[in-house]
Amino acid sequence: MAYTDTVPGPDAPGDALRRIRRLSAVLRAATLLIGLALLAGLIAGAADPGIVEGALSAGQAPATAGLPFDAVKHAGILCVWALRVAVLLSVLWAVAALLACYRDGEIFSSRTAALVRRIGLRLLLLSLTLLVTTPLVSVILTYDAAAGERMLAITLDSTMLVGALAGGVMVLIGWVMRVGAALAEDNAAIV
After folding, report:
1. Mean per-residue pLDDT, 130-147
2. pTM of the predicted model, to two decimals?
């Protein structure tokens, strides 16, 4: 049996485009639902300080566990979360726009290239936001601790690093797609 007999051949272009469009529509709907869930979580946290305190308790350092959680801390943490959610929503919005292009059959164009680049830049911004806001959380949680017990916890974890790397790769892919789309448009004009 020849190798080509055991491996399925490539999809017919029409079949592949239909599947891309269908999957893009499903993923776009999921992206929008995730955005709504993030907003709902932020609203719930604003309405009930217990939700915020409970969400923080899982990741708190032992030094902050015994400190009271007051209205100032609640407001401060909500501001940090709102910033994170806003940046994350901007990423999701760009992803939804790209998936809408794919759903509509616009696969390789200057518009999709710009959206891929935009997603990459926003992922870089998200990594930077996490890097900056994580120390803010530690300051907010310990501002009322006794002298010598206040904390400034600076964290650089794999989520931030992978997010920054993914963002950089997306910017590069967007750039390559933009150059490729420009070449394709030039070739189409010549023919």
Report:
1. 86
2. 0.81
